[in-house]
Backbone:
């Protein structure tokens, strides 16, 4: 029985046409926030989502199986550049919030100040007090609070121990969960419905106020008439063409990768659409502890080291199920078999980099063509990240850590050797296994039509009644986990749409 979806595109096999006030493409944090705010304000809203509805009881424990059912391209999306970097996105009703780590950070004021310094119009468009007030409301609804020690589990408590031993600032992660029992399956979807993702919060709120959610509906194009957006068209999962006409607004909230593709497919190539992709690439390392860690248990991501944020690094404990964890331990043959037998002794911690690197997104025949390259400075940062991750692990009591960077010791047991990594570790970008989960900046907001895609009020520079509400509009990356900031700016976007009427 469906909870949210009124129309399941898998069952729509004949041409479908419908009208509404506002059509929103994408049901992740950005789309769900706009849907909720506008339906509370009385608008007739339809949300179109390419993925299907998934229920907590259907979520698989295996990371590999979860990738296959809940992630875009089964988790195989890759950006190509001076390093081939997987990027991960959800494709499901609720978007990536269904499979994310629940880490909740507010948009740092310093970032808003930087944006405003580069384009003073953004100071009026995104006043700090307005953004902070939206974040406070969002955090209350999503029950954001610091991870409690009793559900943290060893992988998180060991990170705290290591940071404490080194005198580096650290804290329990603030997460959007209620009744979390530390089952460690956030990245596969919480099987108990304890993570307050969009499918369990903002989307039901929107539906309670009349919004309709359509799953299995892939939007291909924005329809325009005389420089005005009048709706969207696409194809249902059942293979039928559809059109949704919107009287008041078309809102793109399909993510920083998919939104610029929809714009370009629609012939809306004005401005740097698809250019300027920025991100927080992540590196991770594995370590072995004598004590049992059971890395798959405890809050999936429950502790973070904030003391290196000034350098653009944020360290987090990671929680993978055994199917993914097994791919993180080194060795071959008997050595690998021995390590597999003691898999409960391994922890994986990661660092997100506030990188300078930039990339580009273009629509491809079957999936977006994404390029992204790290700068020399970013590679130095990646090398530093591996060193500090190893340092914190050894300080926490790891007997071995595995930097996983070619040309350096595969197994490190002392902090002195970890320090040597920062001197002699590789400076080739391709030697660092990295991935991206936070993407920004492919349809930038700005006052200059030549260098931005949408205006400071989220409206497209050329096409009226067309809005972009996701992190495509962010002028750059944040250095912190973005979901709350995305929701806050989407809330401001919804207020602008309401004001236009
Ligand atoms: C594994 C993982 C862990 C993460 N952990 C955290 C975390 O702990 N904290 C945090 O702050 N952030 C985290 N993030 C990032 C965060 O989840 C995303 O930044 C956020 O969800 C982006 O919101 P969005 O609404 O822009 O896009 P999404 O959440 O990606 O939603 C976009 C939706 O649009 C749909 N869509 C795309 N194209 C179309 C189309 N053509 N037609 C119809 N529908 C379409 C997609 O299927 C998707 O459901 C994580 C990301 C990943 C991948
Ligand atoms: S840690 Fe486990 S119980 Fe807690 S929200 Fe994540 S999956 Fe659910």
Residues:
């Amino acid at each position: 029985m469906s909870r949210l979806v009124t129309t399941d595109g898998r069952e729509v096999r004949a041409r479908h046409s419908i009208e509404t006030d506002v059509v929103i493409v994408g049901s992740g944090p950005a789309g769900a926030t706009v849907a909720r705010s506008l339906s509370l304000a009385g608008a007739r809203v339809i949300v179109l989502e390419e993925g299907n509805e998934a229920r907590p009881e259907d979520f698989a424990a295996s990371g590999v199986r979860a990738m296959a059912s809940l992630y875009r391209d089964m988790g195989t999306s890759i950006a190509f550049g001076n390093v081939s970097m997987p990027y991960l996105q959800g494709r499901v009703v609720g978007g990536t919030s269904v499979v994310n780590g629940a880490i909740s950070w507010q948009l740092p004021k310093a970032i808003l100040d930087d944006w405003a310094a580069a384009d003073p119009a953004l100071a009026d468009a995104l006043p700090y007090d307005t953004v902070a007030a939206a974040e406070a409301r969002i955090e209350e609804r999503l029950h954001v609070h610091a991870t409690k020690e009793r559900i943290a589990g060893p992988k998180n408590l060991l990170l705290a121990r290591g940071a404490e031993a080194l005198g580096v600032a650290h804290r329990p992660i603030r997460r959007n969960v209620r009744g979390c029992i530390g089952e460690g399956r956030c990245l596969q979807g919480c099987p108990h419905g304890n993570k307050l993702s969009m499918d369990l919060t903002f989307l039901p709120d929107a539906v309670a106020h009349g919004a309709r959610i359509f799953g299995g509906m892939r939007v291909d194009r924005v329809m325009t008439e005389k420089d005005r957006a009048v709706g969207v068209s696409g194809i249902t999962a059942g293979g039928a063409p559809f059109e949704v006409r919107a009287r008041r607004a078309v809102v793109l909230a399909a993510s920083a990768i998919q939104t610029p593709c929809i714009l370009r497919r629609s012939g809306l190539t004005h401005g740097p659409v698809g250019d300027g992709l920025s991100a927080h690439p992540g590196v991770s390392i594995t370590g072995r502890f004598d004590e049992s860690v059971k890395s798959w248990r405890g809050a999936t991501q429950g502790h973070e080291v904030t003391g290196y944020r000034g350098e653009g690094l944020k360290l987090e404990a990671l929680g993978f199920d055994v199917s993914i964890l097994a791919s993180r331990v080194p060795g071959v043959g008997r050595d690998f078999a021995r390590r597999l037998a003691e898999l409960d002794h391994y922890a994986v911690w990661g660092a997100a980099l506030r990188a300078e690197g930039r990339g580009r997104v273009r629509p491809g025949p079957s999936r977006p063509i994404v390029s992204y390259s790290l700068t020399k400075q970013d590679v130095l940062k990646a090398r530093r990240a591996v060193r500090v991750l190893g340092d914190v692990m050894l300080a926490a009591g790891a007997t071995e850590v595995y930097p996983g960077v070619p040309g350096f010791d595969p197994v490190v047991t002392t902090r002195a050797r970890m320090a040597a990594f920062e001197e002699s570790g590789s400076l080739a970008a391709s030697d660092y296994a990295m991935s991206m989960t936070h993407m920004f900046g492919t349809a930038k907001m700005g006052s200059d039509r030549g260098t931005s895609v949408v205006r400071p009020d989220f409206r497209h520079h050329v096409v009226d009644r067309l809005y972009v509400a996701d992190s495509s509009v962010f002028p750059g990356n944040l250095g912190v986990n973005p979901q709350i900031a995305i929701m806050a700016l989407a809330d401001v976007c919804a207020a602008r749409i309401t004001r236009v009427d």
User: Anything to note?
Assistant: The two ends are 37 Å apart (CA to CA). The chain has a mean pLDDT of 96. The chain is about 30% helix and 25% strand. The longest helix spans residues 376-395.
